[in-house]
Amino acid sequence: MDYFPIFLDLKGRSALIVGGGEAATRKLRLLQKAGAAVTIVAWRFTGEIERSDAKLTRRGFVAGDVGRHAIVFAANEDDNLDDRVAEAASARGIPFNVADRPDASSFILPAIVERDPVVIAISSSGRAPLLARRLRGAIERLLPARLGRLARFADGFRGAIKGLLPDATQRLRFWERFFDSAVAEAVLAGDEARAREGMLSLVNNRAAAAPEAGIVHLVGAGPGSPDLLTLRALQVMQRADVVVYDRLVGPQILDLVRRDAVRLYVGKAPGRHGPQQAEINSLLARLAGEGKRVVRLKGGDPFVFGRGGEELAYLRRRAVATEVVPGITAALGCAASVGLALTHRDHAQALTLVTAEGREGEPEIDWAGLAQPNQTLAIYMGVAAAGRIAQRLIASGLNPSTPVAVVENGTLPDQRGVVGRLDGLRTLIRESGIAGPAIIFVGESARAAQGEVPATRRWDVAV
Asked: Which residues touch 165 (CB under 8 Å, ≥6 apart)?
């Protein structure tokens, strides 16, 4: 983040605006909404400023004006004067903003959506103010007009709920149910009398104090890009108490997890041993047994070479509530990102997903069944075994000149790929420096991808 987002309490605190024009008027409106005691220094003022209850000082600015103000705005639209204001505030360690000049400010003002007391701030870090304003407009249209009333209504019952439910997790569950309930809908509809009756029923219902059973969501995080998460994946990630995640789940995905959720890393990397699968299974069951909502986050799809099936079977044997949230598996994401059609009426009537790694080294694979024409092979975890894969397929009858494509870090900004022949697969990967994670595609579809790769991606052709 270029700027740290923060909300300041300015109620009753002094704020200084230097300038009396339209820019100063806009700052005054915001400060008045925040309850600040505003002083304005300028030679001339707009009519709105003249009619306001701000303290007006009709003269030029001097450095001592910044005094002990909590916040300072330079809004003269005169760069030299605004710079003087900024320097004076900076010398005293006072936060300052120069109108329309984020590079000269210690803080910037976001676009604001207000449903008092709910406030949503949107910032482009000063790079695209129009974009921030458009986002504000989109959010304005989505949010109910009485959203602030709902927040105040809930606040009125916080003490009662805290007395009823001393456990923080139980309170969290109660409020989640409340905001999805008919009571909340009544508040948004303007019928607070009906809402209050319904809320009293909820508060007096001792069943609300019963501990909620835990659940494990087996969630596919997709091939890497956060844009390819499913809506359901995002929903459960935002409500999770604990997230147990693998090595292929990147930081951009984890940024979408609820901020206060516990994050537990259980990934494995080549040459570095992580927790054993039995330990992970036991961990998931234990966390759910504690009443936690657990998200088991896996790259791709949990049921495609992700051991999701093993975890699901273990949890079901122990009567742990589970949900499977599928994700876009890596083969589909990588192929789409380079324009590789996995099936095609002219040359690929079948698609086979296969892994080059098994429970104990090389898996038992029907290589003869894979070495067939008119299909596409998508091989997972095959970079280290590329030479063996090519050897097995050729020995089983596949033409050595069959096209291959290798896509590394598919769907991510550093994605790259190489295209070549099956008999040169090992050399192709070694010389291109591909280390994984990567998917190997074998079949005529790999040839068809050439010339269809987005120009923003690196794509090396080696034959």
From this structure: 171, 174, 208, 209
* Confidence grade of residue 185 (pLDDT, cut at 50, 70, 90): confident
178 contacts 202 by C-beta, under 8 angstroms: yes
Is the pLDDT confidence value at 9 over 80? yes
Angle at the Cα of 320 from the Cα atoms of 217 and 322, rounded to 5 degrees = 25
pTM of the model: 0.72
Q: Which of 410, 431, 429 is nearest to 224 (CA)?
A: 410
Residue whose C-alpha is closest to residue 374's, from 405, 396, 395, 352:
352
* Peptide bond connecting 437 to the previous residue in cis, omega within 30 degrees of 0: yes
Question: In the predicted model, what is the mean pLDDT of residues 336-352?
Answer: 91
Cβ contact 407:338 at 8 Å: yes
Quick one: average pLDDT of 258-278? 84
Give the pLDDT band of residue 71 (cuts 50, 70, 90): very high
Mean pLDDT within 303-308: 93
Structure confidence at residue 310 (pLDDT): 96
For tokens 């059609």, what's the residue? Answer: 341
Confidence of residue 461 (pLDDT cuts 50, 70, 90): very low
Show which residues are catalytic: 246, 268
